[in-house]
Amino acid sequence: MIILDPDLYFPNYFAFEQTPKEGVLLMWQPPSCLLPHEVVMSAYGASIRLAHHVDIGVAQLRNDLDLDWFDWLIANLGGSGIPRVMHVEAIVWAALAMRVGGGYFDPDYWYCWRYRQWKRVALRLGMSGIRLLKVEKLDSVKCFHASGVAKWWVEEACRRQLFHMPRSVVTPSVPMPFEELTLAEYESDQRLKRLIRKLGYYKIMSARA
Q: What is the pLDDT of residues 81-99, one digit of tens each?
């Protein structure tokens, strides 16, 4: 079973990885996108372990899920009161990853766009999102997750036929083991984000295409 987000771009002819007999394969990204905060804290309050670096672009696993456990998980995350926001999905995948194992797709082949600081600065200085995309090395990737604002740039770039001609990228890659996001690590990251937010960084460096 392969579950795909709508904001994926497949720049080359590729082959999916072999589905593991047990566990789940998920995309990897450097930051944690586990949101909203109150749902994450509900997970920790229920002693639910969460994987770090989980990206929700692609999930690959066998269709033998423990649906009773999913019911239990949703109930402990807030039940019908869970906010209707997309990043809750990442919390569910992160919990499943630590329960059933598996690993991250090799990010050299399964690449998630990252909103790095230099990209924020470049946008503020007038560089277009399309030009930012052109610096991404997509000639050897199987899948590009155009997360965040990048999804709109990919759509335009495809219309303008700005990407390279597809190549064949069918070499199997080796998954990386999941890394747990501990409560201490999560709280440390949240303190830093709160400080940055209070300083007005996110407001100043908001995206411009």
A: 999 998 999 999 999 999 9
- Which DSSP letter does residue 176 get? B
Alpha helices of the chain — where are they, by DSSP H?
A: 37-45, 67-77, 88-100, 117-124, 129-134, 150-159, 183-198, 201-204
Asked if 68 and 84 touch (Cβ cutoff 8 Å), the reply is no
CA–CA separation, 129 and 110 (whole Å): 21
Distance of CA 129 to the CA centre of its chain: 19
Q: Tell me the one-letter amino acid at 155.
A: E
Q: Which structure tokens are listed for 77?
A: 């995350």
Angle between helices 37-45 and 67-77 (to 10 degrees): 120
Q: Is-contact 25 59, C-beta < 8 A? A: yes
pLDDT 10s digits, 90-131: 999 999 999 999 999 999 999 999 988 889 889 888 999 999
pLDDT of 53-84, one tens digit each? 999 999 999 999 999 999 999 999 999 999 99
CA distances 123 to 115, 117, 128, 155, 205, Å, are: 11, 10, 6, 18, 9
Identify which of 129, 94, 136, 90 has the alpha carbon closest to the alpha carbon of residue 113: 136
Report the length, in residues, of the chain. 209
